[in-house]
Amino acid sequence: MIFFVAVLFLLIISGAEFSKPNEFNKDYISRAGTTAIKGIFVILIMFSHGKGYIDVGGKFDVPYLKMQDHLNQMIVAMFMFYSGYGIMESIKKKGSAYIDTIPKKRFPQVLLNMDIAVVLFLILAATAGKFYSVGHILLTLVGWESVGNSNWYIFVILALYVITYFAFLILKKKNNKTTQLIGVIITTVLSVAFVYILMKTKTTKQSWWYNTLILYSLGMWYSYFKDKIEKVLMKNDLIFFAASGVLVLAYLEAYNMRSDYGIYSYTVWAVLFTLGIVMITMKVKITNPVLEWFGNHVFSVYILQRIPMILLSRYGVADRHKYEFMIASIIVTVFIAEVFDRCTGALSKKIWGRKNTDAKRV
Fold first, then answer.
1. HSE value, Cβ hemisphere, 13 Å, CA-based, for 217
2. 17: which strand partners?
3. 174 C-beta neighbours (distance < 10 Å), count
4. How far apart are CA 164 and CA 160, in angstroms?
5. Are 299 and 113 in contact (CB under 8 A)?
6. pLDDT (tens digit, 9 = 90+) per residue, 149-173?
7. Over the stretch 16-64, which tens digit does the pLDDT of each residue have?
């Protein structure tokens, strides 16, 4: 696996632009500026999922396993953060007009795309003689269960859309800093409640269903205070690197304690990791066409990557040729993701009169 990580590293550094002294990457958190970052992490998700199908006991796998053990669920952290940030930025600009699009466009677009993918997985399962009950299929169509597809992230993000919609209904009366703040507070409170519902109820869901969920609210808070944060951190390099040093020390301590106090210490670590990536991008701009392609097709790559993995595993490729398995999985995923997004984009345009660019980047 280390060879695949090495290729990813080369892609990153080949497109890295370092800011000059006392200058900063002003594009660090725009949609265009975050695309390659999303690409990096969705590729890491592919590596993580692929690892489950192959033998990773070789000496060349050890460095990757150590890296993956360190990152853990942080491979999805930036998606949560950027999603919350992006939605808050739209709310600030459009107010209730944007809130109204959540139940009319954003939520149904993501749900429809997921359900189309679920149908593909049902067909794949049927070819192997595996069939599911109607109840199980219905739960899969909302992301609560799975028929071989990755589902938890989509379920959680859809739930967060619902939370956001109700939290920001206050904007229908007036859209200003006060009502926006109230909306962010309500979103945060409801998100925390959602975490505890997933934790405490007898849902049998694993911790990854909820342990990065709060980063969506963090993205909203960052958007709300963005101007003030940038005014402080981007004043000069002395302040920036002093703050970076404090963050690094806090991060190392939080990492060592991440399992000591359950969800509380894990959340502190997740928040510091996310802010660390944000600060890195303030100084380093990543622009690489390969990473940007993956960043522009996050949803389809995430939801479809298990299709080639399941097929190749079914025919013994994963057991006998692990490198060929990973390479073939990546190539096939790229192909079907491109086709999927073109088809769903056309369908979305027909239904809603616009392409589903938000759903592609969820």
1. 26
2. 285
3. 11
4. 6
5. yes
6. 999 999 999 999 999 999 999 887 7
7. 999 999 999 999 999 999 999 999 999 999 999 998 898 887 788 888 8
